[in-house]
Amino acid sequence: MNLVHARTRDVDAVTVRPGRPLAGTVRVDGSKNAALPLLATAASLGRAVHLSGVPASADVQRMLGLLEQAGYHVAHPVAEPGAVVITPEKQSSEAPDLSDAGRIRASYYLVAPLLAAYGQAALPWPGGCQIGDRGMELHFTVYEAFGDTVLLDDTGYRVLAADQTRDKVVLTLPFRSRGASIAAICRAVVAGCRLELGNPNLSPETTGVLAALRSAGWTAHAANDKITLVPPPGVPDGSVAWTVPGDKIEAGTLACAIAATGGEGRVEGIDGPHLKVLADLLDRAGIPLTLSPDAITIHRPRAVSGRPLRAIASLTPDGLDADFEPALMALALTLPGTHLFADDINPGRHGNLLPQLTRLGAVIEELSPTRCRLSGPQRLSGATVKATDIRTGSALLIAGLGARGATTVSGLDQLRRGHAVLPAKLRTLGADLTDVPR
Questions:
Q1: CB 59, CB 31: distance < 8 Å
Q2: Residue 382 carries which DSSP code?
């Protein structure tokens, strides 16, 4: 970990003050949401995998530690910051105690690596931020489709691998769950069997895993209604190299921060087309974005349109990623019009975010626990607020950039779970942020 990342651990809060419009160029880190499934896939593959672009965010670093506890060799090449090499090692007969896995929500990605190493997985219930149930029932349905046995108790769950591997597994998901889709893919990799997965999640995080497997010799096809995965012939050997893509959520958050201050800037290291849905929403509101293969450019707002933002989170292939919604809500507080927001995917998220925005003086009408609307622009006043989850933290930083007076955002440990140094990136763009030591 570099010195900048190490220093952030000594900071519990940051004070945000309004200032000039943000401007400049900044580069995103690797994506937490993409890195976690790629790490699980790498550990499931049974071969050495060189993974570059691994972010220093806390959840990803904790996952690396958990893989080491599970008996995998995790090397950090000195000459390649942000790179790791995951290698399977001969395991003992007894699976390790991974009770620390309860500190992250994506701990369920450990099931396939544990099944590959020990033939069983014992894990606590997912933890991390409280934004709703993780829907583990669908994951259990996936494992049962492979013939595995699932056992539950109050502290967690166990998955016991089937005695006999199936040549082919056919499964249709009731909804497009990213976690369950990747669980099915990784389980097929461990079994070395063919998979036909209906109604899959087709987000870039899922299709990125499929692209990685193609480079390892698997045949993978993704259509709107089905993913087909076929193992390579024989037993492949040799290492493979994958790259974690840039963080589209961090890019979108920075774009919203720039737009909220009426600024202009360029965010690099991100596949621009992955932000098309977000860009379309902002363009409708009078904030033009240019998308390119390795960057997005946020231009100064046109004459404000007054058109409402409709930020409705969706799991459909062309839908809005739920993690964009909080940043868009903070931006909407600066825009004319009446704006609608909905996140039925993470039913506890609004319960975290709305009370904190209200402390800044925001007036938001709750239509249901997962839906709300607000009219803008609103004039916020600085206050002390808390990042109760990753996306609430980033939204509060954006809101603080336009509030009168000083806004102190505490709970940065939650923010660092997904973004190692987001405040530093905002400073690069000219934001007035002051660290508050622990």
A1: no
A2: -
Q: Which residues are catalytic?
A: 129
Q: Is the dihedral of CA 53, 218, 36, 78 positive or negative?
A: negative
Q: Tens of pLDDT along 231-240?
A: 998 777 788 9
> Can you read off the two tokens belonging to residue 77?
């090449």
> What is the rounded CA–CA span in Å between residue 266 and residue 193?
44
Share of the chain above pLDDT 70, in %: 95
Give me the DSSP letters along 122-176.
EEEPP-SS-SS---HHHHHHHHHHTT-EEEE-SSEEEEE--SS--SEEEEE-SS-
Mean pLDDT for 236-257 is 94
Give pLDDT tens digits for 70-100. 999 999 999 999 999 999 887 667 778 888 8
Encoded tokens for 198:
């209906």
Question: And the tokens for 202?
Answer: 């087709």
Confidence of residue 1 (pLDDT cuts 50, 70, 90): very low
Q: Classify burial at 189, counting beta carbons within 10 Å of its beta carbon; exposed 0-12, middle 13-18, buried 19 or more.
A: buried
Q: What angle do CA 353, 358, 359 make, to 5 degrees?
A: 105
